[in-house]
Amino acid sequence: MLSLKKYLTEGLLQFTILLSLIGVRVDVDTYLTSQLPPLREIILGPSSAYTQTQFHNLRNTLDGYGIHPKSIDLDNYFTARRLLNQVRALDRFQVPTTEVNAWLVHRDPEGSVSGSQPSSGLALESSSGLQDVTGPDNGVRESETEQGFSEDLEDLGAVAPPVSGDLTKEDIDLIDILWRQDIDLGAGREIFDYSHRQKEQDVDKELRDGAEQEDTWPGEGAEALARNLLVDGETGESFPVQVPGGEDQTALSLEECLRLLEATCPFGENAEFPADISSITEAVPSESEPPGLQNNLLSPLLTGTESPFDLEQQWQDLMSIMEMQAMEVNTSTSEVLYNAPPGDPLSTNYSLAPNTPINQNVSLHQASLGGCSQDFSLFSPEVESLPVASSSTLLPLVPSNSTSLNSTFGSTNLAGLFFPPQLNGTANDTAGPELPDPLGGLLDEAMLDEISLMDLAIEEGFNPVQASQLEEEFDSDSGLSLDSSHSPSSLSSSEGSSSSSSSSSSSSSSSASSSASSSFSEEGAVGYSSDSETLDLEEAEGAVGYQPEYSKFCRMSYQDPSQLSCLPYLEHVGHNHTYNMAPSALDSADLPPPSTLKKGSKEKQADFLDKQMSRDEHRARAMKIPFTNDKIINLPVEEFNELLSKYQLSEAQLSLIRDIRRRGKNKMAAQNCRKRKLDTILNLERDVEDLQRDKARLLREKVEFLRSLRQMKQKVQSLYQEVFGRLRDENGRPYSPSQYALQYAGDGSVLLIPRTLADQQARRQERKPKDRRK
DNA sequence: GATACATGTCATTCC
DNA sequence: CCGGAATGACATGTA
Fold first, then answer.
1. Is the per-residue pLDDT at A669 higher than 80?
2. What are the residue ranges of CATH 1.10.880.10 in chain A?
3. What CATH architecture applies to the domain A614-702?
């Protein structure tokens, strides 16, 4: 009981405080009532006959509510270790994540970007904040369909930000539900995972274990709160850029192209660009203007905005993905990319028809800023765990100069992009399937893999089973209802403590099973107690060995039937109180005054106690060892030797005593060892699940990145078409795509070169990566 | 009776 | 070197 209180006061309380510090609501009752047999056994251990006496005596004297001076070293050790693990695992915990999200929900309606928000809320927070920055929510919630993919998917925060900065009531409700689920998930999963191992356990252990389970399954659904929805509501606006025709080579400003890219940034949700683009288009030189002047045209638009950074960041991400996957450039399969399924909302708006009327009133600046600032969150893989830090740390990594895009927009990639080898003569065609590029292979593979990836992600990461299980649990047992479902145990855990002592004391007359008694007695399990203090208590109470009658009396005095009747579920709890009793005490106990007990019951009692005794106790009794096994085992060496010296013991007795001590120590060690082993297994299990979650998250990120990449590719393709289609030779005729191609040069210009030359360079570019890989 | 599980015990190693 | 913890292997009891 005192150990239990110790757990309550130290373990549970401390952890509760810890959680409170990080803003996690802790419903102690929920955890108390959660059951997890393995951990219960780990922490409490199996039968601990050695500490039974202490447990028993303490209850008798203090009724479990006094402050016991004894320091339980191992207890502290486990508690400290658990706490440490919990603290270490805080970053992985989903409960805090959920909680933070909930707070964000409550705080964010004003739309302010709260940089002080702790981790994990970021996806929601940053997205909403950005949303506010970017202006009114115009996002098309096309990804409502994607939500089925999994809400878990969005927990990475790397996906597109949520469209809406203002949460609707449904959103809040959903968040609230998810939050509750997270809180409960721990217990729920514990039960799920270990229910097969559950069996009759003593209530104290349940209480203690329940308090300690919270770190095992903190719950993971919360991440899904940040429902970052990839929205591509853009309209595929066009832009007026006319490049002066050259002879064979026509230089285009790189910034022009980049601007075009930005204007059609696939991630931007700003479908409409309210402002005008006239300023830009007016700045664009006429056809007769020399190419060199055009390099500066776009820079004013780019400076002062984050869009180039974002864009570059995106490209870096995309390229890293390409490298990571080591995908072969496959120009022959690019059709898949362009033949996106009609149902795919992401691919619908990106075919930019060159003939599309140019909207002269589109503010390119605003468009790029709005779209890409949101994109930033989309490409922040750290958002999930480092909300504030990510936004602050990632930015500095990005060159503050728009020209740095050259490094990312390397000639390699762009050259390939701008080199559709099979470009046919119809320059006015929308980005056709016949336009391959280096990204084609990647994207094709990505698209092909997407389904399987999603399956994988769902299968390995989010655990649809888990989700459904959650649903079921919370349908029938929603929220913190574990409390009620396990109320008996929770009741017994605290209130039953005193009565349990009485029931234990009455074990001699009750038909308590040995297993139950042992399980109950393992309270304060072996190795958890301080020997000296235990000894003091024992001696102070005179319960063991020398004053058996008193001990017996104490026990009998607790045989209050009313208490048992009040707590009928404790009746089965029995305890082995004989283990720590000296043989003499046992003898006396076994022979109560004839007047009090009938002979038959007395014999039964004796038999029962005999059965309760361990072999070593029997041996000790047989050898007339004058002190208790408990002392033999738990006394420090010095006191132990001192004790031995006090008595004239035969060699056989001494040998037996030493054997008893050795076996007792080893028994405790074995129990601790088994607990540790189980603990290790459970930790490994948790680690595996964490890794699986990470894997699933990464897969989801991959899918999202590939999706974004595909969109970018489509944009680039459209832009290529657009630019190329507007090129005119000196006679005002369009260039034939079969004869000419655009190539991005290293100096930032885009050149119009003959296709033969372009093909050669493209081939060269293809070889390079392969060689590098070798 | 076979089996799984919990627990105790022994031997050994390590600190 | 001793005491004791840790642990694998085995024994035993129980359901």
1. yes
2. 614-702
3. Orthogonal Bundle (1.10)
